[in-house]
Amino acid sequence: MDKDFYVYMLASKMGGTIYIGVTSDLIGRTYIHRESLVPGFTNKYGVHRLVWFEQHGSAESAIRREKQMKKWNRAWKIELIEKANPAWVDLYPALFT
Fold it and tell me: By three-state DSSP, how is residue 47 classified?
C-alpha cells in the first residue's frame, strides 16, 4: 500500500518566520512542532502555525519539492501560502475534520 507524503510550511505568525518540512505523518509532525517536543528551529523561533501543505504520492517526489522550495526566495514562499491561505489561518485543526 502506498503512503502519502507531505511538504508543509509552518509560520510563527502572518508574515513571520517560515519553516519548510517533509513528512509522511502531517498530523503527528505538526503536533511535534506545535508542542515544541523537539529542540530546533521551530521551537527556537515559535514556528507552530501550519499555513500550507501539499500532498505527494512518493517520498522522492515530496523530498524533491521540499529541496526546490528551500532554494526559493521568501517572496515566492509567501506567494504560495497566500494563494491557498491568504489570512495565514492555522490549518492544523482542519486536519481533523
Answer: coil
| Length of the chain as a residue count | 97
pTM: 0.94
Please give the tally of structural domains in the chain: 1
Q: Is 36 left (phi over 0), alpha (psi -120 to 50) or beta?
A: left
Tens place of pLDDT per residue across the chain (97 aa): 468 999 999 999 999 999 999 999 999 999 999 999 999 999 999 999 999 999 999 999 999 999 999 999 999 999 999 999 999 999 999 999 8
- Which CATH number fits the domain that encloses residue 56? 3.40.1440
47: which 3 cell numbers?
514556528
Q: Is 97 exposed, middle or buried (0-12, 13-18, 19+ CB in 10 A)?
A: exposed
Task: Report which DSSP code applies to 14.
Answer: T
The range of the structural domain enclosing residue 49 comes to 5-96
Cell, residue 63: 523530498
